[in-house]
Amino acid sequence: MGTSDTGSIPPGVDPDILERLVTVEAATVHLDAMQHEATIHSDDRTVSYSFRSDEPPQLTGHDEHPYPLHYFAASIGL
Questions:
Q1: Which of 25, 36, 27 is nearest to 61 (CA)?
Q2: Mean pLDDT in residue range 8-21
Q3: Where exactly are the structural domains of the chain?
């Protein structure tokens, strides 16, 4: 059932569905110094997203990407 059907509600926002199972898979790779890359996959693995993190020089990083804590803080607001 899609959102184009008259009167249909997508399962992710249907208030009559009281329980949902969400699976998040992430693979991480150490790149250099304090740089890391994470790749996350959708439930059916048809979509993947990658992003990198780094630390500031005082923590032996290169300050080229957001800090891991920045991603965590941003996720609270999303």
A1: 36
A2: 88
A3: 20-77
Mean pLDDT of 50-77: 95
Cβ neighbour number for residue 53 with a 10 Å cutoff: 20
Which residue type, as a one-letter code, is found at position 10?
P
Q: How far apart are CA 49 and CA 77, in angstroms?
A: 19
CB 63 within 8 A of CB 48: no
Of the candidates 22, 54, 68, the one whose C-alpha atom is nearest the C-alpha of residue 41 is: 22
Q: What is the spatial order of strands in the sheet that 48-53 belongs to?
A: 25-32, 35-41, 48-53
